Each structure stands twice: as C-alpha cells, then as structure tokens.
C-alpha cells in the first residue's frame, strides 16, 4: 500500500494506492477533508492540523477497506527554493589513456555539484541531474561506460525549510502515522500530468493553490526553475469580499458557483444573487462585474509568474505546454486568460489518469499532486523522495494501547 497525503491550505487530500501482482498501480480509496490549522501553506496549529490529518486518512482507510501505518507527503510554497549548479571531476589522469566512466565517477560528480553550504534552517530535498558533459560534449543523459577524461554534471537542487518539514512530521506522528518521505509538490504532480515530450520540449507546471501559486519549469527532461508566488485563490476571495462588502465565506461560495476570470466567456445578461447581511435583503449584480474583480487578480498572478521565470531562467519562449493544476485551475476561463497572458495556445488543464477505483473521486486538477505523489513513490521506488528517519507509529490512537503505551511514547520521542 502507498499512501499520499496533500496538506493544503484549504483541503487535505489522501490517496491510498495498491500495487497488484503485475506491478500496476490502483487507487483503492481517497478522501478530501477541510484543512484546519494552516495559513498560506504553513502549519500554525499543530494539534488542529494533526486532528484534520487523522480524520482525512481514516476516511480514506474506510473507503479503501484497509488500515495503513505510514504515508508520503508534499511541500511547497515559500518554504522551498531551487537553484542550478555544476560540478566537475577527473575520470582519468593527464597523459593516461581514456577509461570508461563508472558509477563511482557519477557519484563523485554529483557530490561535487551539490557541495554547497546550506543555511542552518535549510534542508536538501532533491538533487536532480539535468545533463552530463563528457570532454565538452553536452546533452548526455547517461554517461555510464563512455570513454572520457573529464566528467561534468549540471544539476537542479531543491531545498526546504527544516522547521516546516519537522512540523509536518510532528503533525503526522501525532495523528498516529509515520512520515515515510516528503517531496516537492510540483515535482510530484509531473508524474501525474506531464508526458515525456512536454518535459523535453520545455513546459511550465503551475499549481494554483489557495494560499500560494507554485511553479516548476521543465526543460530537456529535468527541472530548471522552482519558484513560488505568495498569492493564491484566497486572495481572489478576499478581493470579492472587499469589493462587494460581503463575508469571505459568501465570497468563496459566489466565486465557486459563478466565478469566471475571462470577460469574453461571460454572459452579459447573467446576474448573480448576493445574500444580504445583517437583515438586508438579497441583491443582484452582473456576472461581468464579478468577472472584472477576479480577472484583475488572476492576471496579476500570471504576470508575476512570467517575471519570476524570466528573472530566474532568462527563458522567454517555450515549446511545450503550460500545465495548470490545483483548485484554481477549475475556474472558468482560466485557459483562455493564460493563453492571452503568455501569448501561446499551448495551455491545458493537468488531469490525472484513471488508475482504477472510483475515478470521479480524483478526476480533477486539484488531485494531480497527490496522485502524482503515489505514482512517484512507485516509479522511482522512493528515490526522488526525501527519506525521513522512521518514527514508530503512535498506537495510542489506534488499538492495542495497553502495556506498550509508554514504550511507544519513548520510541516516538527519539
């Protein structure tokens, strides 16, 4: 069993998958519960967050008819940072004959490229090889057994906040489970929504969350840029609430039911009913007025994304697709708006494939991250996941509490 856990600002999503005797992945059960104790992707209340995690996983367990002990999770937002680096090692001594490149040479060049001094509050999450260069010949994906004198590697390193990872682990342990590993959320999503051609030609994965918008730029099969914008769907809701003078819950409801971010998709005669507050009667506004409020904020988000990508990569043109995932990707008119903003028709919504089970439960761009997470743990056998020290499951919440209670508490502490 493989369990993926997506702890979002608004929702916690869980997918339980099983691998059959033929090695095929099948979704056995899913759940989606309201998120508590988080703000803009950051855990602000560990006890409340752990209770919400426990409820979400237990609900998925009931749907799948199994009991699980551990899970993989994801991280994103302003807690992550990405950088490119290069390393170089000598394969054979000067004047000596060329020799074949070995696994040891590849390990050494990766260590050379990733030998950077991290701040005390940062932790290395992923080291992903972009390409190898052998004696000046670049674009090599696998240099094993090639003859050469000098081996170079270009890598993309992703670091994360050590405190944030520890807080996530603490929440999961308090919920009664073990955190097996943590992965960058946009990198996990690529396993569910991006194909090989898109990764090779150059594509942008945009995760439109409630608190933040995360970006991953792919080129030649590897990430070249990882970034995050501190603006998300909640800011759109707040704009609606402020402009219309209504509470945020009512603004969120209107955004979901009648929201559109592209003016040309709006029926000019359609009206939206707004419930009155404080005893006031309901009132009507044109949907076009609502669209103008949403359009201004969403356009700003994608203008910030363009500037961020240009600043960090100097890339101004891509040949692949812009892949939109997350809850914000479900908004009406989002594809047309991004096409205008980036000046390309290569924009699509990232939808996870059907992996069995009740497909309707996870058939949406907001499920791309957690479905990609379970795909990544199977495809890469956990190699792309940052492994964490295993903590004995806190069985005080489950059955068999009895005489092992103190022993389990001591093990969980260490």
Features:
414 residues, 11 helices
The oligomeric state is: single chain
Strand content: 25-35%
Q: Which stretches are poorly predicted, pLDDT < 50 over at least 5 residues? A: 388-407
Order of strands across the main sheet: 3-2-1-6-13-21
Number of helices: 11
Instruction: Report the principal-axis shape.
Output: globular
Structural class: alpha+beta
How big is the Rg?
23 Å
Mean pLDDT: 88
> How many β strands by DSSP?
21
Sheet with the most strands, sense and barrel status: 6 strands, mixed
Distance between the termini: 26 Å
Helix percent band: 25-40%
Question: Can you walk through the features of this model?
Answer:
The chain has 414 residues and is an alpha+beta fold. 33% of the residues lie in helices and 30% in strands. It has eleven helices and 21 strands. A six-stranded mixed beta sheet has the order 3-2-1-6-13-21, sandwiched between helices. A five-stranded mixed beta sheet has the order 16-15-14-19-20, with helices on both faces. The chain has a four-stranded antiparallel beta sheet with strand order 7-12-9-10. Strand 15 and strand 16 form a beta hairpin. The two termini are 26 Å apart. Residues 388-407 have low confidence and may be disordered.
Q: Mind sketching the topology for me?
A:
Layout: E1 2-7, E2 11-19, E3 25-34, E4 38-39, E5 42-43, H1 46-64, E6 70-75, E7 80-90, E8 99-100, H2 103-113, E9 122-134, E10 137-140, E11 147-148, E12 150-161, H3 162-174, E13 178-184, H4 185-193, H5 196-201, E14 203-208, E15 213-219, E16 222-229, H6 233-244, H7 248-258, E17 271-274, E18 283-286, H8 287-313, E19 322-325, H9 334-342, E20 347-349, H10 368-379, E21 386-387, H11 405-413
Parallel strand pairs: 1-6, 6-13, 14-19, 19-20
Antiparallel strand pairs: 1-2, 2-3, 4-5, 7-12, 8-11, 9-10, 9-12, 13-21, 14-15, 15-16, 17-18
Helix pairs in contact: 1-3, 4-10, 6-7, 6-8, 8-9
């Amino acid at each position: 069993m493989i369990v993926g856990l997506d702890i979002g600002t608004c929702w916690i999503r869980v997918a339980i998958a099983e691998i059959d005797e033929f090695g095929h992945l099948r979704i056995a059960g899913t759940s989606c519960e309201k998120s508590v104790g988080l703000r803009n992707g950051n855990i602000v209340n560990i006890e409340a967050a752990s209770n919400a995690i426990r409820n979400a996983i237990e609900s998925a367990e009931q749907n799948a008819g199994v009991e699980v002990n551990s899970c993989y999770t994801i991280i994103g937002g302003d807690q992550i940072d990405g950088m490119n680096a290069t390393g170089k090692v000598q394969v054979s001594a000067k004047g000596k004959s060329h020799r074949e490149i070995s696994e040891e040479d590849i390990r050494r060049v990766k260590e050379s490229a990733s030998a950077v001094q991290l701040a005390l509050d940062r932790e290395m999450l992923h080291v992903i090889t972009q390409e190898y260069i052998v004696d000046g010949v670049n674009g090599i994906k696998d240099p094993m057994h090639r003859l050469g004198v000098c081996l170079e590697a270009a890598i993309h390193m992703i670091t994360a906040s050590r405190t944030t990872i520890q807080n996530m682990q603490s929440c999961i342990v308090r919920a009664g489970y073990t955190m097996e590993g943590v992965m960058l959320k946009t990198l996990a999503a690529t396993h569910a929504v991006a194909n090989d051609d898109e990764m090779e030609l150059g594509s942008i994965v945009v995760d439109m969350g409630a608190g933040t918008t995360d970006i991953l730029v792919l080129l030649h099969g590897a990430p070249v840029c990882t970034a995050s914008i501190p603006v998300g769907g909640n800011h759109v809701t707040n704009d609606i609430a402020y402009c219309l003078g209504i509470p945020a819950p009512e603004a969120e409801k209107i955004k979901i039911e009648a929201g559109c971010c592209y003016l040309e998709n709006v029926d000019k005669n359609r009206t939206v009913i707004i419930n009155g507050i404080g005893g006031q009667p309901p009132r009507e506004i044109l949907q076009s007025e609502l669209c103008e409020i949403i359009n201004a904020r969403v356009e700003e988000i994608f203008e910030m994304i363009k500037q961020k990508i240009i600043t960090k990569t100097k890339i101004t043109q891509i040949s692949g697709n812009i892949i939109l995932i997350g809850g914000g990707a479900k908004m009406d008119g989002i594809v047309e708006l991004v096409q205008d903003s980036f000046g390309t028709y290569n924009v699509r919504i990232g939808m996870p494939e059907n992996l069995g089970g009740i497909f309707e439960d996870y058939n949406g761009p907001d499920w791309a991250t957690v479905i990609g997470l379970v795909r990544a743990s199977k495809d890469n056998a956990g190699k792309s996941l940052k492994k964490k020290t295993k903590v004995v499951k806190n069985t005080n919440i489950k059955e068999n509490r009895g005489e092992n209670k103190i022993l389990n508490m001591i093990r969980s502490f260490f």
